[in-house]
Amino acid sequence: MNILVTGANRGLGFSLSKAAAERGHTVLACARNGEQPIGSLKDLVSQFPNQIFPLSLDVTDEQSVSAAAAKVMEEWGSIDAIINNAGVLYARDSKIEELDFSLLDVTIDVNLYGPMRVVKHFLPLLYKGAKQTIINISSDAGSITNAYGEDYPYAISKAALNMFTKQIKSYVSDKNINVYAIHPGWIKTDMGGDKAPGSPEETANNLLDIIEKKKIIAEDLFFIKHDGESMKI
Question: Rounded to a whole number, what is the largest CA-CA distance in the chain?
Answer without folding.
Answer: 51
